[in-house]
Amino acid sequence: MRNAIPNLSQWLYLLPAFLIGLGGCIPSMVADSAYDRSVDFQIYRTFALLEPEMANTSADPNLYEPLLDRRVRDAIAAELVKKGMTLDAENPDLLVAYDVSVAQDASTASPDFGYAYWFGYRNNYSTSDFPNYRPVGQYAPGSMLIDLVSASTNELVWRGVAEGDILATQTDERKIRRAIISILSLYPPNQPVRR
To answer: How does strand 156-163 pair with strand 30-35?
Structure first.
């Protein structure tokens, strides 16, 4: 009578395929967020994406990649729409900005701007009431930031960050979407019910 339990060595060839499949499930981006706890996020129903403006740094302006910008903007809009928000360029409740870092050669880095070049949105919105605010230049290269700004007060109300391996010249839509999904999965923040 043959042994009804298969020999373990017969199944070892499946182990690499299993590990590769499991590795695809592990996100390469770790996201975090911060927000103004005095804000009721339920009031925000509409949003608009801010237009990009180049950062003022000594880095190579040719690193700005319009295709990356378009993919990031499209992915952010798609995720916010999935959350029940409406894109409204004329009368938004929230303004959406993003930044992506680009590594820069230390020998050409400006002392005024640190070791990284950023592209995304350069806007003048207030961060005075924002808890633990860090300027964009203090994030590591490869990071993506998404800022949500109250259109009525021009105050930063929510920031999501994924510190990972996004490159400005990278146009891999799957990686971009994974980062944005990871960041925006934290929005809206879980808040206690207001009394």
So the answer is: antiparallel
pLDDT of residue 110 exceeding 70, the answer is no
Closest C-alpha among 137, 148, 66, 51 to residue 102? 137
CATH code where residue 154 lies: 3.30.160
Q: Does a structural domain hold residue 177? A: yes
Q: Is the entire prediction scored with pTM above 0.90? A: no
Q: Which residues contact 164 (CB under 8 A, 6 or more apart)?
A: 28, 29, 30, 142, 143, 144, 179
| pLDDT computed for residue 161 by the predictor | 94
Amino acid at 173: E
> Per-residue pLDDT tens for 130-159?
888 888 778 888 888 999 999 999 999 999
Q: Measured between alpha carbons, how far is 165 from 147 in angstroms, rounded to an integer?
A: 19
